[in-house]
Amino acid sequence: MEKKIINGAILAIFTVIAILSFTTTNASDPAPLQDFCVGVDDPYSAGFDRTSVIDNPQGAEATLVNVNRFPGLNTLGVAIARIDFGPFGLNTPHLHPRASQAFAVMKGTLYAGFVSTDYKLYDTILKEGDIIVFPQGLIHFQFNLGKSKALAIAAFGSQNPGRVNVADGVFGTTPEILDKVLTKAFQVNKTVIDQLRSQFSNSKHVSIDSARSILLETLSQKPKVLDA
Ligand SMILES: *[C@@H]1O[C@H](CO)[C@@H](O)[C@H](O)[C@H]1NC(C)=O
């Protein structure tokens, strides 16, 4: 009888753990508990019609209006962006860790695509009025196929979708990822890695601190025994 109770208790604990881990792995914005956030008295914002200044070599600027820029979004689980493309401008490969996206072309013709977890590329050419989806967490990009400017509007299922650029996430980190990790990962020498880093690091060039670097270098040496 007592054993049964203990077994029951263990089962209950495991059930709770299972439910908790299920809810955390499916984390998204929580459902709102009221019509809108009481702390926010202004559900309006202006300036979304203004063309964003394109100040990068890739020639496209994504302006994300998330909850930080527009507090009215708070608790509502949505965000919006405008993406301005110069001639042949590229919105570089990136992902949004917390939201799927619907992307609509308002002006111009774009080549766009995303990559699934089995590395299949889903790509297409989008004309004015076309819409594409970019699933949460998958790498995607858009490239302006025209000599004139292009514009797209993107809607997100999170008030704070986040953005991780693929290149910056590897070659533009602070501090830099250890040379050996990158030369091994990409199967190229340090010269090539440094060249890539110079394109993507945000000019700070913070190297990994020297004590940590020496320790990591030492640890990454092959054990002498194995070399013999
Ligand atoms: C590094 O690799 C590049 C490209 O393969 C090559 O041109 C260059 O000579 C190499 N540099 C060194 C120092 O090995």
Automatic annotation (TrEMBL):
* Keyword entries, A-Z: Apoplast, Manganese, Metal-binding, Secreted, Signal
Q: Which Pfam families match?
A: Cupin_1
**Secretion signal: which residues?**
1-27
Q: Which InterPro entries match?
A: Cupin_1, Germin, RmlC-like_jellyroll, RmlC_Cupin_sf
Q: Which residues bind oxalate?
A: 91, 96
Which segments constitute the Cupin type-1 domain? 44-194
Offer a single GO CC term for the protein: apoplast
Q: Which domain of life is it from?
A: Eukaryota
CDD domains per the record?
A: cupin_OxOx
Give binding positions for Mn(2+).
94, 96, 140
A molecular function GO annotation: manganese ion binding
Any idea where this protein resides?
Answer: Secreted, Extracellular space, Apoplast
**Family, per entry:** Belongs to the germin family.
The protein's name: Germin-like protein
